Amino acid sequence: MWRNVAPRVAQLSPLERVRLRRIAVRYALHGWEVTPGACLARSRFVCGRAGCPTVGCHPALEEWQQGASADPARVATWWRSRPHGVLLPTGRAFDVLEVSAHLGRQALDTVRTHPAGEGVRGPVVVTPTGRWMFLVRPGDPLRPELEHCFHVVRHGVGSWIPAPPTRLPEGPVRWAVAPEQARWRLPDSYLVQNALVEALRAAGVRLTTELLPGHLPLPRRGC
Questions:
Q1: How far apart are alpha carbons 51 and 33 in whole angstroms?
Q2: To 10 degrees, the CA torsion angle through 147, 150, 151, 155?
Q3: What DSSP state is assigned to residue 183?
Q4: Inter-residue contact 124 to 175 (CB < 8 Å)
Q5: Residues 48-53: contacts with CB within 8 Å, 24+ apart?
Q6: Helix/strand/coil percent split, the chain, to 5
């Protein structure tokens, strides 16, 4: 199958492939597991698996959850001949809170001025389709008022995100806050969720469960 699609996949230069490999290895060196993504071929993604029906961004490995690795040597081998996207499994080194661009900007402004300082600031990924992804410490569920709120999506075990400099048909994935800016530290999930709640309230979104001292939670009705 690769022989048939190689001419279309080869739109990235060898230098770009080396860049993808270098950055994927850097993630691995910091303990972030990596899995190769399907290669962008014009407006669709090709993973090389015969009969794969998925044309959007997706893992190149069929058993990607078992195959993901933080071993720099193993990660490097995946980019020796193919310009794979760089995908980061969630629910391992970190979880991800995904929101819209408008909410993401507001939440980031809240985080930057938060009295907890660096304890609430962490890496933030931005996709060219306008999704903002806050990397946080893994394991904590969403607050009750966010659990059924379609404005916030939590990526945990069994999910993944595209990482910079992966290219999507609309453009490259980038960092709004790079890991180096955050010193590769991850904030507490609930502190970032608090910032998202503040941003949602500022945007006029009604949250159905208020966790206020001395008050019982309201029935969950979504948002």
A1: 27
A2: 60
A3: T
A4: yes
A5: 48/1, 48/2, 48/5, 48/82, 49/1, 50/1
A6: 30, 20, 50
Provide the token pair at 97: 């809170």
What integer pLDDT is reported at residue 38 of this predicted model?
Answer: 97
SS3 90: coil
Query: How do residues 79-108 score in pLDDT, each as one tens digit?
Result: 998 999 999 999 999 999 999 999 999 999
Contact 197, 134 (CB under 8 A): no
The gap from C-alpha 127 to its chain's centroid, in whole angstroms, comes to 9
Helix (H, G, I), strand (E, B) or coil at 157: coil
Task: Tell me how far apart the terminal alpha carbons of the chain are, to the nearest angstrom.
Answer: 46
d(CA 28, CA 74): 10
Q: Classify residue 91 by its DSSP letter.
A: S
Share of the chain above pLDDT 90, in %: 71
Q: Which amino acid is at 137?
A: R
Distance of CA 24 to the CA centre of its chain: 14
Nearest to 30 by CA among 134, 205, 179: 179
- SS3 category, 102: helix
For residues 56-69, give the mean pLDDT: 96
Structure pTM?
A: 0.87
Q: Could you tell me which of 37, 137, 142 has the C-alpha nearest to residue 86?
A: 37
